[in-house]
């Protein structure tokens, strides 16, 4: 796989859009793996990876998107 930006060999792929990125273009940030209800506290908690690879070009939405067709 080649880097989306410079065509060098990719060292990873963006967690959100899967574009290949080399070490020069890779960015890192949090990624939410799952959300579950805590049985101890009774509230929602998330499992987050702190340093997931990101390309910096894609823009994951900050709010959930309704998908009523899956209900």
How do the strands and helices of this protein lay out in sequence?
Elements: E1 12-13, E2 20-21, E3 27-37, E4 44-54
Antiparallel strand pairs: 1-2, 3-4
List the defining traits of the structure above.
elongated; 71 residues; mainly beta; two-stranded antiparallel ribbon; two-stranded antiparallel sheet
Molecular structure report:
The chain is mainly β and about 70 residues long. It has one domain (about 1-60). Helices cover about 0% and strands about 35% of the residues. It is built from no helices and four strands. It has strands at about 10-15, 20, 25-35, 45-55. The strands form two sheets. The protein has a two-stranded antiparallel sheet with strand order 1-2. Strands 3-4 form a two-stranded antiparallel ribbon.
**Helical stretch tally:** 0
Number of domains: 1
Please estimate the helix content. Answer: under 10%
Instruction: Write the H/E string, N to C.
Output: EEEE
Strand order of the largest sheet: 1-2
The gyration radius over C-alpha positions equals 16 Å
Organism: Virgisporangium aliadipatigenens
Protein name: DUF2180 family protein
Concise description?
It comes from Virgisporangium aliadipatigenens. The protein is mainly beta and 71 residues long.
């Amino acid at each position: 796989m080649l880097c989306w930006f410079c065509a060098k060999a990719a060292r990873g792929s963006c967690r959100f859009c899967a574009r290949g990125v080399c070490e020069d273009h890779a960015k890192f940030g949090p990624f939410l793996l799952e959300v579950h209800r805590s049985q101890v506290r009774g509230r929602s908690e998330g499992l987050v990876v702190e340093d997931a690879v990101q390309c910096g070009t894609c823009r994951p939405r900050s709010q959930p998107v309704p998908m009523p067709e899956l209900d």
